[in-house]
Design a protein that fits this description.
Elements (H helix, E strand, L loop, with lengths): L24 E3 L6 E3 L8 E3 L6 E3 L3 E2 L2 E10 L2 E8 L4 E8 L7 H15 L9 E7 L2 E6 L7 H8 L4 H20 L12 E5 L2 E4 L4 H8 L12 H4 L6 H17 L11 H8 L5 H4 L5 H10 L11 H16 L6 E2 L3 E2 L1 H5 L1 H8 L3 E5 L6 E5 L4 H16 L3 H14 L6 H15 L3 H14 L9 H15 L18 H14 L3 H13 L13 H18 L8 H5 L7 H6 L2 H4 L20 H25 L2 E6 L5 E8 L3 E6 L2 E6 L5 H9 L9 H14 L3 H14 L7 H4 L3
Antiparallel strand pairs: 1-2, 3-4, 5-6, 6-7, 7-8, 8-10, 9-10, 11-12, 13-14, 15-16, 17-18, 18-19, 19-20
Helix pairs in contact: 1-4, 3-6, 3-10, 6-9, 9-10, 13-14, 13-15, 14-15, 15-16, 16-17, 17-18, 18-19, 19-20, 24-26, 25-26, 26-27
């Protein structure tokens, strides 16, 4: 049987993950000799050069530990891996190093994979994330462990008609959901239909293998199942996938594909496919209705096949009902699930964000709700791992982890507030002001609800700390009062110090940090001490900066001085000249009102503003498809999400704890979009002023006047040419 084709691509629309710090040098258990396993495949047996003992090459890709090999295909290997952040098993697909192509090919694969990740359906293997480590792409997916249709065919040759129809209906529904997003699979075959249990089928490797084959100059994936129009180099569409699914189901029922003979010639293969075998002849025991549906699916001409997935699903379900006497596919509970559960899968995905699964017994009446919340102890364990990532300077990984924990801990205080507070801290370290504000605003919004009586003081601490972090101006070191080593206020020393550093009030920041590193947290807040190594780095930089400020020629060799710093902050900005950029405006500076337009300029202003808005959106689309935005987002209906996975010109992919939902741009408030777009502005970056100007254009166009003025003034400080554009920007 054919192998699973694998395409490992970067789905996460962002910068590549940092190279793993896990050593590829292992110790021989027999003689204690150090063995270099860097060139070995994960889990391969490497011979000790000293004693000849075989040692298994252990490998960790970022926070995923390879456990065992699941399968090998033409493009790489599938492993079972443990996600150490969420403590769960996943499927990790690893691209062969020799197959990694150039930038164009990689971008093509990335785009296709992003589209696949945007489709969330119970009959599609879900893509979770991806990255690169040890010089290889990897793709993290849902682990589906009950085998593939390919495995079942190999074991039994022919499968029961009822089982094949169940798998066919579910696979067709998965293909339908993907096609609704504009996605074509291109390589439907038995090896890509996987089973979560004996009655739940999922289609995997969506579109990836086909794109990879095209990148290598191939015109088909697996000859048995490829649609004949693809052999004629004709454009493929969803009907090509219908053909491949029909050929797959035909094989499962008949024990052979719908073509007789094997060939490597495209011409001969086309001839075979123009005269498909008759299922009613090669498998006469198959019901007439099923044979009729499958024969139509493998018709040589696309126009002869089904005109939509809805029509296909209806006909498959009719054949199933005729065969079994049931008008629903009963695949619920221990042996079966109801078809209504499958139809309600989208609702299940949304409800799981609240920590429950809903099983629908009657679509109009009763709904039974069963809690599936992750235990508090497990979430606390995940929080400890996230703090470890923060100490390693993986603040984006840590921030995403804390966001997930907060989503799971909603309405479970104080864990929810602690997760949001630490998410905000990670954002502050990463200098993502918008995300930090959203985290602290979430705490303020939650208020003191959900706390037990003994934790009333703790609830007040969260609200007061968030308000202080959201308020303008620095925090004075004398504002904090600590009741003892088991006081939560100890955490505030560090977060307030970061706020002061951001505003370049380094003296106060240093005092707060000194107090923090001297504390000895104990009791239930002993974990706060884990943050001391990070705080010490900021304290060292504060002391360095205060010394530097006293030097008479402090501008000399600023770049070399910056290299001595241990953190990236407003301090490092100041040393390379940021202070000069934020100096008070001169008479010719931002305080001057914009000039009045001449009579000929209004039309030019309208054109310019349209161009700026188009450039703003193009920038934002590129940013979000390059670097995922993580942080709590609320759409205009009040629904909450944990971040953005990818976008296109029409829709935004919003992340839920267990999937992604696509909405139109209009579902996000202008204030939210402005906050997201400004989060990509990096101080001292060559394009910082241009980005500020484009964000000002969007803010002005959406009625956010104050923000528009502030952003435009900031842009004009760095680039005086924007001063002349002010009149055009704010023209009525």
């Amino acid at each position: 049987m054919s192998f699973v084709a694998l395409a490992i691509v970067d789905v996460t629309v962002g910068s590549m993950a940092a190279e793993s710090t896990v050593s590829t040098s292992q110790t021989c258990p027999a003689c204690a000799t150090s063995i270099d396993t860097s060139d070995a495949e994960p889990l391969a047996r490497v011979e000790c050069p000293n004693c000849g003992e075989k040692v298994r090459a252990e490998r960790m890709f970022d926070h995923f530990v390879i456990v065992e090999t699941v399968g090998v295909g033409g493009m790489g290997t599938v492993y079972k891996a443990r996600d150490t952040l969420l403590d769960r098993f996943v499927a990790l697909k690893l691209l062969r190093k020799d197959l990694e192509g150039g930038l164009d090919e990689t971008a093509h694969l990335q785009q296709e994979a992003r589209m696949a990740a945007s489709v969330n359906h119970p009959n599609i293997v879900q893509i979770f994330s991806s990255g690169t480590d040890h010089g290889q792409f990897y793709l993290v997916m849902e682990l589906v462990e009950r085998g593939s249709l390919d495995d079942f065919i190999e074991q039994h040759t022919r499968l029961p008609e009822e089982q094949v129809l169940e798998a066919g209906i579910q696979t067709a529904k998965g293909l339908r959901a993907a096609y609704a997003k504009g996605l074509i699979h291109r390589d439907v075959k038995p090896a890509n239909i996987l089973f979560a249990d004996e009655h739940m089928a999922k289609i995997g490797d969506f579109g990836l293998a086909g794109i990879a084959a095209e990148a290598r100059g191939e015109i088909w994936g697996t000859p048995y199942y490829v649609a004949p129009e693809r052999l004629n180099n004709q454009p493929d569409d969803f009907r090509s996938d219908i053909y491949s699914l029909g050929a797959t189901l035909f094989h499962a029922l008949a024990g052979k594909a719908p073509i007789e003979g094997e060939t490597n010639s495209a011409t001969e293969l086309r001839a075979l496919k123009n005269q498909p075998l008759l299922l009613s002849v090669v498998a006469p025991e198959v019901s007439a209705d099923t044979a009729r549906v499958l024969q139509r699916m493998v018709a040589p001409e696309p126009a002869q096949r089904f005109s939509s997935y809805d029509e296909l699903v209806t006909e498959l379900e009719r054949a199933y009902k005729k065969l079994t006497g049931r008008d629903v596919i009963d695949v619920a509970t221990a042996k079966h699930r109801t078809r209504r559960i499958i139809a309600a899968a989208a609702a299940i995905v949304l409800v799981t964000a609240l920590g429950v699964f809903v099983f629908v017994r009657n679509t109009q009446k009763q709904i039974a709700v069963f809690s599936t919340a992750i235990p508090i102890a497990e979430l606390e364990k995940q929080a400890a791992e996230a703090r470890h990532q923060l100490i390693l300077d993986h603040y984006n990984v840590a921030g995403s982890a804390f966001a997930r924990i907060a989503t799971e801990a909603r309405n479970r205080q104080p864990l929810y507030d602690w997760a949001r507070l630490q998410q905000g801290l990670a954002a502050m370290i990463g200098r993502n002001d918008a995300q930090a504000r959203e985290s602290f605003q979430a705490i303020e919004k939650a208020g003191t609800k959900g706390f037990v009586k003994n934790d009333v003081d703790l609830a007040d601490f969260f609200v007061a700390t968030s308000k202080t972090l959201l308020s303008p101006g620095p925090v004075q070191s004398g504002q904090l009062s600590v009741k003892g080593p088991s006081s939560p206020e100890l955490f505030a020393f560090f977060s307030f110090a970061l706020k002061d550093i951001n505003q370049l009030d380094v003296q106060n920041a240093a005092q707060l940090l000194e107090q923090f590193v001297k504390t000895q947290p104990s009791g239930k807040f002993a974990w706060i001490a884990e943050l001391k190594p990070i705080a010490q780095k900021y304290l060292d930089d504060c002391r360095f900066y205060l010394t530097w400020k006293t030097q008479p020629n402090r501008s000399a060799d600023a770049a070399a001085l910056k290299k001595q710093l241990k953190t990236r902050s407003a301090i490092s900005d100041a040393i390379v000249g940021k202070e000069k950029q934020v100096a008070p405006p001169t008479a010719a500076g931002p305080s001057q009102p914009p000039r009045q337009l001449t009579q000929k300029e209004p039309d030019a202003a309208a054109r310019k503003k349209a161009q700026w808005l188009a450039a703003w959106k193009k920038n934002l689309v590129n940013d979000l498809n390059r670097t995922q935005f993580s942080g709590e987002i609320t759409d205009t209906t009040g629904a909450e999400y944990t971040g953005i996975s990818s976008v296109d010109n029409q829709t935004v992919g919003l992340k839920l704890p267990y999937g992604i939902v696509r909405v139109s741009w209009s579902k996000l408030a202008p204030r939210t979009l402005l906050s997201i777009s400004t989060s990509f502005i990096r101080p001292n970056a060559p394009d910082a002023a241009d980005r500020q100007w484009l964000c000002a254009s969007y803010a002005n166009a959406t009625g956010q006047g104050d923000a528009a003025r502030q952003l435009a003034e900031a842009a004009a400080k760095s680039k005086p040419e924007y001063r002349d554009q002010m009149a055009l920007l704010f023209a009525q």
